[in-house]
Amino acid sequence: MNSIFTFVLAALASQIVAQPTEAPVCPDWSVAPLQHRWSHADTFVANDPVILRWNTTNGNLEYIQDVALFSANNNEFLHTQYRSYPGAVATTGELSFALSVPLCLQREGVYYLGVYGTTLEGDSCFKKSPDFQLTADPQGDYSVCYL
Fold this sequence. Notes:
CATH architecture: Sandwich
Number of domains: 1
CATH class: Mainly Beta
Keywords: Signal
Strand content: 35-45%
Distance between the termini: 37 Å
């Protein structure tokens, strides 16, 4: 009985930490590089106003429901940037928000956004943004990160 419980727990854990994969049911859309809303700086900092753009070529994607921050170093989920149900209408092609990165997560360095959407048929879709660089807050008290 103990081994069954261990097996189920291991299977569940592998699903939780597994890197998201791009769904084959949604092949005809793409996510553009993250952009600053009012500048053309090369790197980002926490709370920067940003624009995330995507392109849907066949109209199959209906809504963008979640945008999440991931470490590009190990594909670990770090922080939710946007969540809405039913979501942003996909044909709009863009979403503006403040890039939210908690202090203790700012030292990862390289990140990407995972963009989750749904089709007209209710299928789930996932795409990654290109990686981007984030500059950690130079005034941040990182000692609280080790408590």
